[in-house]
Amino acid sequence: MKSILVYFPDSSYRPTDSAIGKLNSIGLDVLSVYTTEDFPASAGGLDGIIVCCTEKSLNSWLELLMRQFELPVWWWCQSPGFLSKIQYPIEGVLTGGMSPAELQWALVVGLNNYDNRRSAKLQIEQLQEKLDERKLIERAKGILAKTTGMSEDEAFKYLRNKAMKERKKMAVISGTIVDLYGPLLER
Predict the structure, then answer these.
(1) What digits encode the pLDDT tens for the residues 175-184?
(2) 7 lies in some domain
């Protein structure tokens, strides 16, 4: 982690030299931002975001940041208050009482959690895609079995051979069959 954006949306929360100094002391380039207009056009070069706000406004600022950036976000809590529910994922809570070493560890652990969450999300998306492909293949097998009298095993072999001949995925071949014959059979 090299560069971090520190966002101070609340006028009551302003950076202290010690807070920014602690981040600088652990080797981070700090970009302090006070309004949304000052956000960089892209997240290029940024490794994360720290948002400094009250617990009451945290969820609304997290929503804005999640829409604009795909980066890990930490909350710099400057007031002792209890937040009943955080609606968006954050990597951790930072406080002014933390030493530079504690800040560094909190950022490292948070970054690891962020990477794990992104990896899990990607795996879920890939598994969902495979499941959708499998459903399409099963529907195409059913259509072939119904229209041609093939068994489901024969229909699967037909789909596999056709996909190999055309150098396409079985799901693409199955999608074509379902698109062509599915509506006719539903009548």
Answers:
(1) 999 998 877 7
(2) yes
